[in-house]
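Hey team,

Filing this mostly as a record. A colleague (T.K.) asked me to run one chain through the structure pipeline before their review meeting, and I want the input and output archived in the tracker in case anyone asks later how it was produced. No errors, nothing strange. Just documentation.

Input sequence:
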Amino acid sequence: MAKVVKQLIIKELKEQLAGMEGCILVDTTGLDGQNAEEFRSELRGKGMRMIVVKNSLARKVFEDMGHAVIGDSLQGPTAVIHGEDGTLAVAKVLIPWRKKKKLLPVRAGLFDGRVLPPVEVDQLAMIPDLPVLRSIFHSLLQGPLRRLHAAAGGPIRSFAGLISALAKKKEKAG
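Output structure:
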């Protein structure tokens, strides 16, 4: 490949991956055109992309972007999957599709500046979405507060009942 063409491809890849928080590298061996288009269509619908890249060019792009650590995972036919919502969202789309189709084995993931092995990428897909995590967090915070409120309110209600009973007793007596 001519040097000028390589430079153009590198420039284009940098533009496509600009602002990328993370990605997942997959092996495209055995992926036919129909499955590739089906998966790309699903990704597009969620603001994600799959880019099949030449490893040497991808390695150069990742080095220039400060992610040289993932370069070791670029071996054989490789695709980079990335999205606006980060690696977690990509894993939530990729892993179920991969298990259903038995295609696209994960080579590695780039998450929060570190390289994840395939097992950890699979685990990312099991993390609940942000709204679910927020509701879990809120319920964890509310539980102790509710118990404190109930514990503090019990004696106060008893005391108020006692005062009310005394007032009624005094009215009857006097």
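Quick notes for T.K.: The longest helix spans residues 130-173. The CA atoms of residues 70 and 113 lie 9 Å apart.
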